[in-house]
Design goal:
By secondary structure, the protein is of the alpha+beta class. Helix content is 34%, strand content 13%. The protein contains 13 helices and 10 strands. The longest helix has 19 residues, at 100-118. It is globular, with a radius of gyration of 20 Å. The chain starts with a helix and ends with a helix. The mean pLDDT is 96. The structure holds iron/sulfur cluster (2 copies). One iron/sulfur cluster binds next to helix 6.
């Protein structure tokens, strides 16, 4: 059994739904060029952090972990066992359970320590949104899945409702990818069903995306977009919900759902207070949006659903 095989087995035993390995090196020039074009077109909205540190983003390695040679990419499914009532103010599925930063970091630290115990010469660094790292690109290179037209990483047999986390390691590991067996083919359901036409041939236009607008964007939302939110209160899953690769998504095992999300009602939004905010955001990734933004989302929901 190779070192890579042992690591893959350990990662699966700890609960990974998919895992892969890639050697580190510069990001392929066609990918970095497209990324820069996307930034230059302004489609990243106000997410300025996406345009900073490109040297690190396109050449990950020693600056993140001295002596880094490989990256282990882990996918954990978050598809909930139980969904919200269809009439409820909709929260994106990734935010149903415990904050993924906490769960993924704990997972990666355990995996890193177990590898360290078993294999000599291993130093590691866990990454969960903490450094500029093109995780979907590296996941594709490692054969974990492919990037679909909806710009999510699709893991065949698991779906796209996955969180990605990475362990950079000083080990020189046998790579597991890429795999070229899967693609979107002729499908374009995500593009056709996007309520705000945020998915374009030139990439996702975050400025029109309901996920960006309800989570990242501060301040008022243009009326002509807000009126298309329907029952969406926090985030949007439409381009994933319609994807055929998600028809039998693997159900999560590591993200127990929050009752505050599962039982959220229009009444809660009508009486939205600081207490409602605290209840919804406790141990939750929903805290990415601040109280004024959730209040704004609540007002939009009530206007769209009188
Ligand atoms: S999350 Fe919603 S608004 Fe954003 S691209 Fe997907 S379908 Fe469109
Ligand atoms: S809905 Fe179709 S086009 Fe969109 S990501 Fe899924 S397979 Fe690809």
């Amino acid at each position: 059994m190779t070192t890579t095989d042992r690591i893959l087995r350990l990662a699966k035993e700890l609960g990974a739904d998919a895992v892969g390995v890639s050697r580190l090196g510069p990001v392929a020039s066609d990918h970095s060029r497209l990324y820069e074009q996307w930034i230059n077109s302004g489609k990243n909205g106000k997410m300025a952090y996406l345009s900073r540190n490109n040297a690190l983003r396109f050449h990950p390695g020693d600056d993140i972990l001295p002596g880094a040679r490989s990256v282990i990419i882990v996918a954990l499914s978050y598809y909930p066992r139980e969904l919200q009532d269809p009439q409820a103010p909709r929260v994106s599925k990734y935010a149903y359970g415990t904050d993924y930063h906490t769960v993924m970091r704990r997972y990666l630290t355990t995996l890193g320590n177990l590898i360290h115990r078993d294999i000599e010469g291993h130093a590691y660094r866990a990454i969960v949104d903490t450094v500029p790292f093109l995780e979907r690109y590296w996941a594709e290179v490692a054969g974990v899945g492919f990037i679909g037209r909806n710009h999510n990483l699709i893991v065949p047999g698991v779906g796209s409702y996955v969180f990605l986390g990475e362990l950079l390691t000083t080990l020189s590991l046998e790579p597991t990818g890429p795999s070229r067996h899967y693609s979107c083919g002729a499908c374009s359901r995500c593009v056709e069903n996007c309520p705000t036409r945020a998915l374009t041939a030139q990439g996702l236009d975050a400025r029109r995306c309901i996920s960006y607008l309800t989570i990242e964007h501060r301040g008022p939302i243009p009326e002509e977009l807000a009126e298309r939110f329907e029952r969406r209160f926090y985030g949007c899953d439409t381009c994933q919900d319609v994807c055929p690769y998600n028809h039998r998504s693997t159900v999560q095992r590591l993200f127990p759902p929050s009752d505050a999300v599962l039982r959220l009602t229009a009444h809660d939004l009508r009486c939205f207070t600081r207490e409602t905010y605290d209840r919804l955001t406790r141990d939750s990734a929903i805290s990415r949006a601040k109280c004024p933004e959730l209040k704004r989302n609540a007002e939009i929901f009530l206007k769209n659903n009188p």
